[in-house]
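not sure who needs this but someone in the group chat was asking about Translation machinery-associated protein 16 from Hypocrea jecorina so here u go. i didnt clean anything up, its just raw.
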Amino acid sequence: MPSTLHKTRKQISKKRNGEVNALHEKSRDSLRLHKAGVRDQRLEKLAAARNKREQPIVERVTFFQQKVREKGSEPLEVSAIQALIHTYVHQYDEEYDAVKKTRRAGRPASTKEDLLKIKITALEKEYQAGFLIPDITSAESVKSLDAWEGSWAYLSSLPWIKVTAAGNVRKAELPSKAIV
């Protein structure tokens, strides 16, 4: 993704008639190359951290996009939305039970088991307070969700709602920080 090193290398090779191999260790050009390489590494690290933070939101939108497509790209009622949310919240239950059964009696929980339990608990807690999903209650918002191709930039233009376990629906904004 970052191309600073490539650009710097190209500039230096033009200046030196195509030879970048014969640089002195402390020369200005070698320092420029080093600085560009460090910058590229830093940018890659930041991009990886950002993608890791945004991944749960993208997975959630993908799940609801697929479910709406399965139902014919039609707007859904609150009860149908709650059923989809319930399915999403409890998608890790089988895996959690399987990991729990493989553990011998008297042993502490494994890291995977702890992580799954935390994830399930956090999703259930969010559902009680208001589960954030793309708006799938109107035809135009379902159409825009159907047009989503997986990019993060397009998510901010989608309308969002929060649905509680009690059935309350209210408008919401795309979170700038990560969700579960």
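also The chain has a mean pLDDT of 86. if thats useful
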